From TrEMBL:
InterPro entries: GGT_peptidase, GGT_ssub_C, Ntn_hydrolases_N. One of its GO terms (molecular function) is glutathione hydrolase activity. This is Uncharacterized protein. Keywords: Membrane, Transmembrane, Transmembrane helix. Pfam families: G_glu_transpept. It comes from the Eukaryota. GO terms for cellular component: plasma membrane.
């Protein structure tokens, strides 16, 4: 394991991280003038052939760097700290999610359900999904912890305790309360659990800190026992389909993932361009198609949206992780346990609509690679189309205006997030529904990490109040 005093450049959000001195495999692949100069220079035919073989088989030689995007700057930075210590993308996602159970108890917690999507771009094999959406109650560990413990046992690298310790310290010593958490507390009217709380107040969660410390001190042998049999998450190959020149990986059935694929397949046939994203017809068709899928697939009887948060990670070894966890509603059942976390609400036999998503260029190994997560088809499709049809960058795609659709097909527009839709688009979207809905904060957030060649960018949705973190050695 590497020490904490690693020399590293750490930045936030959209300051690109790129190679200054080392030449990566991706740079060799795209750097036309460099390639010509070298090819006709002093390199021998043997070296040239070796280079071509590396390009063909994808033997990466990249500058080690990574990024984590979450709904909390502290949780994003915990994730990149884990990466700097030698952890992989799974380790970072686990550590960041434990952190979110402290900073964002309105959207996730130790009893939350969730899904983790994993993909390694070096091997370019199928993505893997770890699904802990439907686990029974365990006498040993809450459901989210079962999912994270299983993921750590099978895919993690650093010691289990090391991934939880930063969250213990924040819970015990106190953390700054976000505007989004305050909004959720007032909306759900559960001020009794957070008396006299305000934005930027320091909140301590001593009972939760004790619970996290107990969990951190379980041995690997104990964790193996806890996640056995019916308490073991479902580990399967993810669903993959092609959209334009991209491979898109999603959760497979019985999740909502294949339904998003239907929307994307049908929308692709309409041949919209980047310019069309500014036009009313684009959103009219998207609403129309999404409504058809919601209705024909009877989604409101199969999936609930609830509240969720997502962690997006890219590590130095080209491993990508999207982890979405959540509760049946803000603060779940609204009942806090003696262990300091909120119990999830009853799902009544239906599943959550979590959508971890990984997208990679299918033609160029150093092309665009995107990691994100969403909570339903309507929100996911808008951001994905901004990225893939609009060719927008991470920030533009995430921060753009979004409509919301409830399970019955009613359309709502965000009342306070800028920028707004144009007057013409807003008018027509409202015309599509008999009830004109204004969606009030807090809003569902979508976070993204994107890589093109060796250039890494990332963005945490301002709706969730987070800031992404990145580093380069």
């Amino acid at each position: 394991m590497q020490s904490d005093n690693i020399s590293a450049q750490v930045t936030r959000e959209d300051v690109p991280l790129n190679s200054d001195k080392q030449i990566s495999k991706c740079e060799k692949y795209f750097g036309g003038s460099k390639f010509i100069n070298v090819s006709f220079g002093t390199l021998t035919v043997v070296i040239t052939i070796a280079l071509l073989l590396q390009i063909h088989y994808g033997d990466y030689q990249v500058v080690p760097h990574g990024s984590v995007a979450t709904d909390s700057v502290e949780c994003s930075e915990i994730g990149t700290t884990i990466l700097k210590r030698g952890g992989n993308a799974v380790d970072a996602a686990i550590a960041s999610t434990f952190c979110l159970s402290v900073f964002a108890p309105h959207t996730t917690g130790l009893d939350a359900d969730g899904q983790m999507l994993l993909y390694n771009h070096r091997t370019r094999t199928h993505a893997t999904l770890v699904d802990f959406s439907d686990l029974p109650i365990s006498p040993h560990l809450p459901r989210l912890v079962l999912g994270l413990a299983y993921s750590h046992r099978k895919y993690g690298y650093l010691p289990w305790k090391e991934l939880i310790q930063p969250s213990i310290e924040f819970a015990r010593n106190g953390f700054l309360v976000s505007k989004v958490l305050v909004q959720a507390i007032h909306q759900e009217k559960i001020e009794q659990f957070f008396p006299n709380i305000g934005v930027d107040n320091t909140l301590k969660a001593n009972k939760l800190a004790e619970t996290l410390e107990t969990i951190a001190n379980f041995t690997e042998a104990q964790l193996d026992t806890f996640v056995a049999d019916e308490h073991s998450p479902v580990d399967t190959e993810a669903y993959r389909f092609k959209f334009k020149n991209y491979n898109v990986f999603l959760p497979n059935v019985p999740s909502i993932g294949p339904m998003l694929a239907i929307v994307m397949h049908e929308f692709e046939k309409l041949n919209f361009t980047a310019e069309d994203l500014m036009k009313t017809l684009f959103y009219y068709k998207l609403v129309e198609l999404t409504r058809i899928v919601y209705g024909d697939m009877h989604l409101k009887y199969k999936f609930f949206e609830g509240a969720s948060t997502n962690v997006a990670v890219v590590d130095k070894d080209e491993s990508y992780v999207s982890l979405v966890s959540g509760l049946t509603s803000l603060f779940g059942s609204g009942e806090m346990t003696n262990s300091g976390y909120f119990m999830n609400g009853k799902a009544n036999g239906i599943r959550s609509s979590h959508l971890p998503i990984i997208i990679v260029d299918s033609l160029h190994i150093c092309g665009r690679r995107i990691v994100l997560g969403a909570n339903n088809i309507a929100l996911a499709s808008q951001v994905v189309f901004n990225l893939l049809i609009g060719n927008k960058n991470a920030s533009e795609s995430i921060e753009g205006p979004r409509f919301h659709m409830d399970p019955n097909g009613a359309i709502g527009l965000e009342g306070s997030h800028l920028p707004f839709f144009s007057a013409d688009i807003s008018r027509n979207l409202q015309y599509l529904t008999k009830t004109q809905l204004v969606i009030n904060e807090p809003y569902e957030a979508i976070n993204v990490v994107e890589k093109i060649g060796d250039t890494l960018s990332s963005h945490s949705d301002s709706r969730g109040g987070g800031i992404a973190s990145r580093f380069r050695r």
